[in-house]
Amino acid sequence: MNVFLTRRAFAMALGAAGIGAMARPAAAGALPAPSGKVILTITGNINAKNADGSAAFDREMLEAISHDAFSTTTPWHKGEVKFEGVALDKLMKAVGASGDHITAFALNDYSTDIPIEDFARYNVILALKRDGEYMPVKDKGPLFIVYPYDSASELKAQKYYSRSAWQVSRIVVK
Fold it and tell me: Helix, strand or coil for residue 160?
């Protein structure tokens, strides 16, 4: 029996499972099915799944996990930009990820490897919004991995810029 949850009900379900507070990894099968268009699929070493061995997320599901934001300059925009989205460390906990890195894939098949330790260390987010607006596919959306580049001088380097994939559609935990 498929049960479609509203954003509020999904957040309550995450909280009841201990995921909202990120106290422990998700239990196997703890994710509800997406009710909207799937914009992200996570596979690999995860224990929370909702579709054929993967964790599929619509926008509301991602937004229910966390709302994190920061402003930073980037090499791709003029001036400071505000990004909003889900913290990648919280997303990894929500799917019960076990591994040391991910490979993020973009809609155009670009891929990049990112150490999972970066997520909590640098407060990396999977941005859904830029300057208060959802990002369309034609402008780096719907999902963009963003580091707060201005928070540490070491982040203003090609090493971290190359990890900042846009148009992310799939993540494999390794």
Answer: helix
